[in-house]
Amino acid sequence: MKNLTMQKQFKATFYLWLCINVFSFQLFAKKSVATAQKNTGYLFVYFTGNDKKEEAIHYAISNNGYNFYALNHDEPILASEKISSTGGVRDPHILRGADGKTFYMVVTDMESAKGWDSNRAMVLLKSTDLINWTSSVINIQKRFPGNESLLRVWAPQTIYDKTKQKYMVYWSMKHGKDPDKIYYAYANADFTDLETEPKQLFFSPTNGSCIDGDIIYHNGKYNLFFKTEGNGNGIKKAVSDKLTEGYVLQDKYLQQTTDAVEGAGVFKLNNSDEYILMYDVYMKGKYQFTRSKDLAQFKVIDQDVTMDFHPRHGTVLPINNAEMERLVTKWYTAESVLKSAQAESIKKNNIVLDSVNKRLFLPVDYGINLKSFDPEFPGFPGLNIAPKGNLDFSAGTKKIKVTIAGKPPVIYEVEASVNNNPVLKGYYADPEILYANKTRKYYLYPTSDGFTSWSGTYFKTFSSVDLVNWKDEGVLLDLVKDVSWGKRNAWAPTITEKKINGQYKYFYYFTAAQKIGVAVADNPEGPFKDSGKALIAKKPLGIKGGQEIDPDVFTDPKTGKSYLYWGNSYMAVAALNPDMVSIDTNSIKVITPNKDFREGTEVFYRKGKYYFLWSEDDTRSENYRVRYGYSDSPNGKITIPENNLILTKDVQKGIYGTGHNSVIQVPGKEEWYIIYHRFTRPEGITMGSAAGYHREVCIDKMEFNVDGSIRKIIPTLTGIKSVK
């Protein structure tokens, strides 16, 4: 009897132990699944441009929502011709389904080369792994009667309607002469068709067009972001308590730029109460990111954002580790990892990767400790890099092994070395240089480059005490804000320092809208105030072609008199009046040195000679180059030496498009330097005409022969040493 009682107690105890452990295991399993499914990164889905080959779906990934890296070498992840009726797709929007594991994507079915009013369809796509997609083309005009006057179907997006437990697709349509309006319809269960007639969701109360809708549910409200078109040009939003009706316009532009924008996309940062509003600054070929907690006030965070690609109208989806690893395994490569080194001291535009010989070159800033340097290669699930962290590059290359899950490891020889050229990080061109006696510093005044078709609208300046280390002093003149007579094409400035009544003044001559103006400041970094009108607005007498651009200012050390030079396809000169903001119109003279003169005049004085430098060919050409002549007068006849080509490309070094220069003499020394721009290296030579607005600033030494002739300048990668 006693044994029977003990057996019963044992069984009861064992059963209790088993229940506790099973329950604990279930909790652990649930916790593990929850942890595995927690969103830790981001997938950016986008297209890249208006050419047919660019109208396709691309992927990029990020760990933090700020630093994005293209997958598949920024090539499409789906063939547009296989999923569309036109051969091109645009404006991709991606959504995670209500079940947490199914994904829905919708895109505009459009080849823009056929015209902006040429498309009638969208494409619906569905996936369970973000890699394999099924697709269906929905031609609205054919699918639904009453759309005979339909001209275009743009920018579809999807949202889950919890009330109806269906996926609602919304997009903009234009019928006849009516403005674009936003419509919606519900997709069928398979997401292969629209099962309800399109209904109007929203139209602009101002009767202007509204496109690119993006609905975000926040604090019990549906926020519909959209772009105004034709009646103002920017991003606004309307708010409603209900998904399909009652949207009230909040009549305020939300973009944080004066440039034209489209394609608003909002996503919530993981483990944060903050949102990102991003949009396509399509006229400038760039994206802008802003951050907000309330979806009402937005702060620009462009300084924190990096992308190794150039997206157009896309959306961002938060993803988990397993999904990230799947994408990395499928579409990321060792070469992409290595080219994406993010250390602040690396000149990222100038990283050189040789995939044939498995070598990587990382150009770094002057003064970096190469004995302990971390390139900061990106890390993602499914990716391993060894060794990593601080490495000793001072004695030569290091072997870096990159292993991506499911692929054989790749080993590269990695070199990190100081390259002082380019001297500025990023795209800048047409550099002017000044030594300011007031501050005893050097200042660079370039064109802000990297804007499609030279469409930049602001000027910056940079300061240095040694010509090697440069500090960004910020924007000194913004055409849109500061100039009334010319608000586009901020190009090729020049500057001079004058002491007037014992006080230093700075006169800044610049190009705007193919005219030349002047702004004045008390300090070399500004702020500058525009004179209020163009100084040079028409061609000199007898000149029919060319443009009124590329000013250069020169003060004759023999007389103290100042001159302004300018012109594209011709070189003109005029004496500046003592006020420095007007010219002696009677002194205007055309002194074009030869028939090959193009632009970019630079004048300086040395040992009794007036030197004239200029650029020939076209800034989009790899053969853009610098020639020179000299004269006995600042406005006299220019003599051209026989060997007057002093700066040109160096194919062996991958240096192309060297031109539009200025010259500086170190005060009190017979030490001269030339400042010029080149194509961005190494990618520029592959860009075609776009290389002409993806340029960077370099400095090299200028030397003279005994007879005063200028020696041919060898463009370098290493640049110059610190000047004292």
CATH superfamily of the largest domain: Glycosyl hydrolase domain, family 43
Query: Might you state the CATH topology name of the largest domain?
Result: Tachylectin-2, Chain A
Describe the sheet with the most strands.
Answer: 5 strands, mixed
What is the total tally of β strands?
Answer: 45
Spatial strand order of the main sheet: 20-3-2-1-21
Number of helices: 6
Count of all domains: 3
Average pLDDT over all residues:
94
Give start-end ranges of low-pLDDT stretches: 1-6, 16-36
Write a structural description:
The chain has 724 residues and is mainly β. The chain has three domains: 38-331, Glycosyl hydrolase domain, family 43 (Tachylectin-2, Chain A), CATH 2.115.10.20; 334-418, Immunoglobulin-like; 428-702, Tachylectin-2, Chain A. The strands form eleven sheets. It has a five-stranded mixed β-sheet with strand order 20-3-2-1-21. A five-stranded mixed β-sheet has the order 22-23-26-25-24. It starts with a helix and ends in a 22-residue tail after the last strand. The chain crosses the membrane at residues 12-29. Belongs to the glycosyl hydrolase 43 family. It comes from Pedobacter rhodius. This is Family 43 glycosylhydrolase.
